[in-house]
From TrEMBL:
Its EC number is 2.3.1.286. CDD domains: SIRT5_Af1_CobB. It is found in: Cytoplasm. The gene is cobB. The active site is at residue 110. It catalyses: N(6)-acetyl-L-lysyl-[protein] + NAD(+) + H2O = 2''-O-acetyl-ADP-D-ribose + nicotinamide + L-lysyl-[protein]; N(6)-succinyl-L-lysyl-[protein] + NAD(+) + H2O = 2''-O-succinyl-ADP-D-ribose + nicotinamide + L-lysyl-[protein]. Substrate binds at residues 57, 60. Binds 1 zinc ion per subunit. This is NAD-dependent protein deacylase.
Amino acid sequence: MSREIRNIVILTGAGVSAESGLATFRAADGLWEDHRVEDVATPEAYRRDPVLVHRFYDARRARLCEVEPNAAHKALARLDAEWPGELLLVTQNVDDLHERAGSKRLLHMHGELTSGWCLACGERFAWEGPMGEGASCLQCGEVGQVRPDIVWFGEMPYDMDRIDEALRRADLFVSIGTSGAVYPAAGFVQTARCCGARTLEMNLDPSIGSTLFDESRLGPAGKLVPTWVA
Ligand code: BV8
């Protein structure tokens, strides 16, 4: 007898934004917008070549005004508005499509393109437009110390305690549009399972951890998610 579903945790990855036109990470031969991940998404890469890293993130930030939330984002926002129990949408994505669709109970575990982080004073603040090396901190005014507020490989994702607590309370864990290639996100299904949650995956192809899910639905998120939420 499956227990009543009150508390839901949803994890999304790049696949949920694919139908909006944003590139996923591991689509074509591991290149990401023509860059190797290790050349643009690590603290070492930033120290080595800040101009390249800023250019990579400035280009992705500029894309945000050219894309719209798709049916999957909108269905998740509807669920957020209507679900009476606990619900937490944890996204690995750094785009702003979930919030633009209306999701409120949302957490960006890998940071956000629309946020800057000053290494001089530690403050984080909303950021639009190119960041580049000459950017000055909106708080302390220091120039050239603003980095993308993005969790790079080797850096600790945000709000892990809050995520862990939600996973342990979850009656249902749903993973949407992620390859299950990156930790700690790829391990969330195990945490949820061991605490008794039902687990559902919706993905274009079977993810690396597909066999860990009670149920795996294959197809585009723009079709599967609105059907599931309905
Ligand atoms: C950390 C920000 C520790 C950058 C990103 C344990 C085992 C092995 C390795 C590790 C481990 N623990 C840590 C590691 C190292 C590393 C890691 O996991 N490496 C991997 C490559 C092996 N992890 C880390 O470094 C993490 N940090 O653990 O820190 C620590 C502890 C203490 C103190 C300090 C540190 C940090 C990881 C975060 C890295 N940053 N993003 C940016 O975005 O610019 S990760 C990056 O990959 C994105 O966030 C992305 O979301 C994420 C995962 O990719 P996906 O979202 O899944 O995208 P992908 O393209 O892979 O897959 C898309 C899927 O969608 C596919 O399955 C496809 O079929 C599907 N799809 C496509 N179209 C559709 C669709 N599905 C539905 N509908 C469609 N239309």
